[in-house]
Amino acid sequence: MTTGTELASSFLEGGGRSRRELMTPEGVPLAVDLADYGERAVAFAIDFVLCMAATIVIYLLFIFLPFGGTTGIVARSIVLFIAFVVRNFYFIHFELAWQGATPGKRVVGLRVVDRRGGPLLASAVVARNLTREIEAFLPLGLLQSPVGAGSAAWEQISLGLWLLLFAALPFVNRDRMRAGDLIAGTMVVALPRRVLLGDLVESAARYAFTEKQLRAYGAFELQVLEELLRRPVGVETSRLLREVTDKICRRLEWPAPLPDADIRTFLREFYTAERAFLEREQLFGKPRADKHYESKAAREPADPSVKKV
Amino acid sequence: MSAPAPVEPMTQRSGPSTTPIILRSSEFRRGREESWRELEALIGRAERRGVRSLSAEELQRLPLLYRSTLSSLSVARSIALDRNLLLYLENLTMRGFLSVYGPRTNVIEGIADFFRRGFPAAVRAVRWHFVIALVALVVGTAAGFWLTMVDEAWFSALVPSWLASGRGPSSTRESLLDDEIFAAWPGLAQSFVAMANFLFQNNTMVGILTFSLGVAAGVPTILLLVYQGLGFGGFLALHYNRGLLLDFVGWVSIHGATEFGAILLCGAGGLALADRILFPGRYGRVESLAVNGRMAAQVAVGAMLMFFVAAILEGGFRQLVASTSLRLMIGAVTGVLWLFYFARAGREPAE
Lengths: 309, 351
Description:
The structure holds two protein chains of two kinds. Chain A has helices at 4-12, 37-63, 72-97, 103-108, 122-143, 153-172, 179-184, 211-214, 219-229, 235-252, 263-283, 293-299; strands at residues 19-23, 29-34, 110-114, 186-190. Chain A is of the alpha+beta class. Chain A folds into two domains: 1-20 and 201-309, no CATH class; 35-190, no CATH class. The longest helix of chain A has 27 residues, at 37-63. Chain B is mainly alpha-helical. Chain B has helices at 24-49, 56-79, 83-100, 107-125, 127-150, 153-158, 161-164, 173-181, 188-212, 219-240, 245-278, 285-317, 324-344. The longest helix of chain B has 34 residues, at 245-278. Chain B is elongated, with a radius of gyration of 32 Å. Chain B starts with 23 loop residues before the first helix and ends in a 7-residue tail after the last helix.
C-alpha cells in the first residue's frame, strides 16, 4: 500500500525520479534517488575540465624544466601520461576523501554509494575509476593516435563500437550503472542537502474542527498543504492559498466565509488539527493515505459500517 | 487493514474551544532536534574537509549521533506526517550513513593497498583461470612454431604485417641480428617515451580485448590467446630456422616475462568473467558479475600496470642491453620477482 508521503512525493516532484531502497547495516531502509543522466554528465564535465586544467598546468611546469624541451610524438606521450596520472589521482582522491563525491558531483549534489547498502570500500572506488580508463580513455587515445599507422579500418570501427557500447550501458540497465559501477558494485545517487524548516504546528486554537470534517482528507492532502504553507510569501502564494481555502471550506461545509486576513491562521490551524487527527489514526494502525481512503476501504467488502464522507 | 471505527469520542468537539492541541510528533521533534543539528554540523564538516578533519572526540560522537538519528527516522516514519521533517531525517541519515561507513583511506593508501593486497590476492583467486589461459597460449605457440618451422609461408599468415614490420621468410640471419635483435638504441626520448607509449597502447588494446571479451562466454578470450601464441610461435620458428632461437628468446625475455604475464592475467580475468556468466551459482548473472567482477577487474587493472612496466622495459631497456645473456638474466629476474610477488604479497591479515 502506498503511503501518503510517497503519494505527496510523486505529486510534488513530478514523479520523474527513480527511487531505490538501500538497507543500512542497522536494518533501516533508506530511499535514495538515482542520479539523472544530465546531472551525471554535468558533474563529469566539471571534473573533466578541472583535470584538463591541472594537466595543462603540470605540463607547462614540465616543459620549463631543462630537459623538457621536446616536441612531436614525445611531447604527446608525456601529455597523455600526465593526463592519465592526474585524472586517476583526482577521481580516486576525491571519492575517497569526500565519501563518494568529487568537486563536480558536489556541485550537482551526487554521491557514489554501495549498491547493497554496505560501506563504500576503497577497492570499489579504485575499481570504478580505473575501469573508466578501459571504458573510454584508452580507446579514445587509440582512436586519435597517429602512431597506430598499422591500425586497420576494422580496428577503428571496433573501437568506435566499443565506445558506443559502454556509453549506452547506463541507458539500458535499471540502476543507470556504467561499466565501472557494475564492476565495483556501486551506483550514483542524487543527495542534495535538505534543510529542516520550522514546525508548522500552531499551538493556539481559534478554530475548531469536528472529526467528520477532519475525515475529509488524508496524509497526501496534508502534505501538499504543508508544502503550500512553506512557500515564500507573495502574490502568487496568496492567490493559491485563497483558492485552497475556498476548496477546503466547501468540502468542510464551513459556515462563515473567511476574510483574506485570516486565511493563513485558518490554514495553519486546520493543518495542525488535521495532522493531529491523522497521526493519531496512523498510530492506531489506520493510516489514511489520501481523501479517497474511505471510498477505497468501502469498496472492499470487509467492513460495511464505513460511511462515505 | 480494517476501516476506521465509526466513533472516537476523544476527537469529538462541539463548538469553538481554546484547548491547545498537543502533537506527539511535535513533542518528539522538540526533544530530538538538538542532536540532529549536532549531527548535521559534524557531517557538514566531514563532507567539506573530510572525516579526518574531525577531532577524536567528534569521531567518537559521529556514529552515536548517526544511530540515534537513524532511530529517530524509524520513529518519525511511524508517528509523524510532517513531510519536511521526514525528508530531512531521511536525507540526514543517508549523509550520516555515508560519513560513518565512508572510506577511511586516502588515495596513496588506497593505491598502495591495491598493490600490497588487492592485486596479488585477486591474481591468486584466478590462478586456475590463469592456467587455462597459459595452456591456450602454449598450444598456440607450439602450433605456430611447428607450422612455420615446416613451411615459412605460414609466417605471413600468422603474423600481421604491421607487427612483422619487414621481417619474414625473406629475412636473413644478418638482417635479423642488425635490425632487430641488436638494433641501435634510438635515444632516451624516443625509446622511453615514444616507443614505450606505442607499445603500451598496442599491448593494452590487446589486453583489454582479451579481458572484456570474456563476457562472451570466454570463447573469444581463448581464441585471442591462441592467436597471440600462433604469432609468437611464428617468430620463434623464423629465428629457429636461422639459428637465432636463443638470441631471440633473450631479446623477448627482457620484457616478455612481464608482458606475457600481463596478457595471461587479462586472459585469466576474462575467463573468470566467463566463469561467472556461465555458472552464476545462486545469484543472477548480472548480480554474480557485480559480486565477483570486482576481483576480475582488479586483475585487469593490475595487468594494465604490468603492461606499463613491460613497455618501459621493452621500449627503453631492450636495445640498451645489447647482450643475450644479460637479457636472459633480466628476464628471469623479472619473472621470478613477479612470481614471488603474486605468491607471497598480501598474505598477512589486514590491519
